[in-house]
Amino acid sequence: xxxxxxxxxxxxxxxxxAVYEQLSAFSAAAEEAAADAGIGAKxxxxxxxxxxQLNGCAFCTRLHSRDAVKLGETNDRLAVLPAWWESQYxxxxxxxxxxxxxxVTRLSVPQxxxxxxxxxxxxxxxxxxWLALVMGAWNRVAIRSGYRVAP
Length: 151
What we know:
This is AhpD family alkylhydroperoxidase. The chain is mainly α. It has seven helices and no strands.
């Protein structure tokens, strides 16, 4: 059974819009760094989706899944994303980026090296890390603000 929703949720963007705008600027900078590092828009969305899945953010998972589909992402790849490492759907770069994003999201001590296959260069490692960090912040805003997802 899913946890019950707290009754004391506050829309963070409405309470402190200036802070929300700064997070938006941070997000844009992370996406720009990703583009500069050669990380394509579809992979950016996959990273956002996977981080959102790990953080349990239905709002962001749905939002970025829809964005990924608009960019040409397939339903098959989205369906296996929670177990991406068991599939053959993802390229070496995608697998490395997803593994790194999971490591950053889970706040593990950087001991896991499954993602570190050499597929990502230092700029890409940094960009994926920033994308995961900013997506985690967005997940927390959505969850704490009580953004609900309905059909």
